[in-house]
Automatic annotation (TrEMBL), chains A, B:
Cofactor binding note of this UniProt entry: Binds 1 Mg(2+) or Mn(2+) ion per subunit.
Catalytic activity annotation: (2R,3S)-3-isopropylmalate + NAD(+) = 4-methyl-2-oxopentanoate + CO2 + NADH
Domain Isopropylmalate dehydrogenase-like: 4-362
Name of the protein in its database record: 3-isopropylmalate dehydrogenase
Quaternary state and interactors: Homodimer.
Length: 366, 366
């Protein structure tokens, strides 16, 4: 089959890690008889440098016309004034929010699990890790505080800034369905996170999720307050399967969950609307400090490409092959610098490789 | 000297742990020649049961008339309908928000540190703990999303709920000053946490905190995005001294930080306005599952009483004595059940005691 893949290489390490994901996809194409046609789309700092804005309408149209989009990372700000004082149209991340909205990508799925080979990198003690954990955050991505109306105005000579957090029944219902559907293919548990003891939006959230839950009697379902969830992720991550939550809580908790695994360079992410289209990207950032050095870990991006094969192209066998190749490369003791063992003694047992070599090693195992 | 202490025993384990704090305060009084007069104030579930609301205006007036208030914990809901469907006036936590506002308690200080004797309870690996960490969260407590206007309405037959997040320059400035003042008495570092890449309120926050920082040239000052802060607390808690943040981020991060220490039963908290008055309470919750069993850890409440001595009554020597007594009791190997060693082998080295016995042991060491 032939697929039209939009590619947003972006800034920082983005171009390097995306290159390796394409390498692996091409190997999948060769082996299984598919063709992936790539179309580069400008976004973020590089788009500001080229077009003066982080995302043009043409770029949005390009992305919409693709079967799926693979992204590196957005960052890279070339302006000289303090970044947070810049108007939105000059901040690279603004492109990301605009793209999510334009493509209606309301569901963000971020798996966070522990690789047995990388237990040592996990910040948690061995008794807490136990025989490992494997959770997925389903974050609402186009509503709430990040997309509410905002305003900064002067009242009696004093600046006052307001952001608004709005959710409708419709928005909550569709993300809840995604979470329960996802749980049905996993360990059949959903933990819905909110702050229903304070927020109106959270009380509506609970009510709607309660209703959706009734359609999934096989799924174990619970509520958790966000402050407690932030604690439980550290105390006992094994208790979680799918965590369902709104936009900002999901932003915070998914990053915390990634860090709890100890290897954010291994974690992929996917954003969906109600079609087969998806936007796939690594969980980590643009890491400008190591950009261009050829040492960034491409695995999260390669696993994001695997998610694309599975969810947008229905190529389960091919996705399995990529995931197996990643596991094999770890078993074969290859590591990028970010996942090298901490202790001197353990270092001798593995071989440190760069970005391109890691891509080659994974492609060879497809 | 004579002090008038309001006591909100509250629900769950509240009455048991407050009793031990009073025991220790009375011992301080005996030794140093002070009198603490206590006045019980009803709030939370017990106030709902007695007066039908979680906090009466009379209770607020009582609290206002005290030199300081010591609180156990609020929870305990006797209603039969699902709790989040209850109107605010029937939810116990609502009393807490009302009290904070009525007393203008805009600054919440929560220390989170590792007791060397309790390293084993810390969920983090030994290399991350290093020689320990000691941070304090300064959380804005009367503004932002938890106190904004909210509304749930029907739009074209669909329920839509909105909460609003507002901060003024004035509100940000006063909490920033508290954070920098606190840092000056500690390791002179402030990390201000926001989401300035998205929120207007966070951009105002940064601007105002930047200005306040100029008055404290000795303090090392940095910004951190909230999603990154949630990661850094797990990855490297040693980097933090004072974390300054708004209400909701502070709610989430202070609970995460407590859990990172591994012993939330040891952590106190204080809420301030612009006078000497303060509200002092343990960081943990009402723990209804163990209420009445005599096994709850009273140390967090006893340390909250020590903060009261220090900050509201200017009794530094007395506060030091309480803190030293707590450390001594740990060195003497007494533990409540929540801080007992996990491993069988280590258990033989310590002695498990109940709530009242722990209070006695600490009082004896004053
Ligand atoms: C860059 C920022 C707007 C974005 C977000 O918070 O959504 C990022 O942190 C993420 O999680 O993808
Ligand atoms: C009970 C609740 C309203 C409260 C809060 O979130 O402020 C609690 O979680 C806390 O942190 O004191």
């Amino acid at each position: 089959m032939e697929f039209h893949v939009g590619v947003i290489s972006g800034d920082g390490i983005g171009p390097e890690i995306v290159r390796e994901a394409k390498k692996v996809l091409d190997q999948v194409g060769k082996k299984y008889g598919h063709t992936f046609n790539y179309e580069e789309i400008l976004m973020g700092g590089i788009s500001i440098d080229t077009h003066g804005v982080p995302l043009t309408d043409e770029a949005i149209a390009q992305a919409k016309a693709c079967d799926a989009v693979l992204m590196g990372s957005i960052g890279g700000n070339t302006a000289t004034s303090p970044w947070y004082q810049l108007p939105a149209e000059k901040r690279p991340e603004a492109g990301l929010l605009k793209l999510r909205k334009a493509l209606n990508l309301f569901a963000n799925l971020r798996p966070a699990y522990l690789y047995n080979e990388l237990r040592e990198a996990c910040p948690l003690k061995d008794d807490i890790i136990g025989d490992g954990f494997d959770m997925a955050i389903m974050r609402e991505l186009t509503g709430g505080l990040y997309f509410g109306e905002r305003e900064t105005k002067e009242v009696d000579g004093i600046l006052v800034a307001t952001d608004t957090l709005t959710y409708s029944e419709t928005e909550i219902k569709r993300i809840a369905i995604k979470a329960f559907e996802s749980a049905m293919k996993r360990r059949k548990k959903v933990t819905s996170v909110d702050k229903a003891n304070v927020l109106d939006s959270s009380r509506l959230w609970r009510g709607v999720v309660d209703e959706v839950a009734q359609d999934y009697p096989e799924v174990t379902y619970e509520h958790m307050l966000v402050d407690n969830a932030a604690m439980q992720l550290v105390k006992d991550p094994r208790q979680f399967d799918v965590i369902l939550t709104e936009n900002m809580f999901g932003d915070i908790l998914s990053d915390e969950a990634s860090m709890v695994t100890g290897s954010i360079g291994m974690l992929s992410s996917a954003s969906f609307n109600d079609t087969k289209f998806g936007l796939y990207e690594p969980s980590g950032g643009s890491a400008p400090d190591i950009a261009g050095k050829g040492i960034a870990n491409p695995i999260a991006t390669i696993l994001s490409a695997a998610m694309m094969l599975r969810f947008s192209f229905d190529l389960d066998q091919e996705a399995d092959a990529v995931e197996a190749a990643v596991k094999q490369v770890l078993k074969d003791n290859y590591r990028t610098i970010d996942i090298m063992p901490q202790h001197e003694a353990d270092r001798a047992t593995v071989q440190q490789v760069g970005t391109a070599q890691m891509g080659d090693l994974i492609a060879q195992r497809i």
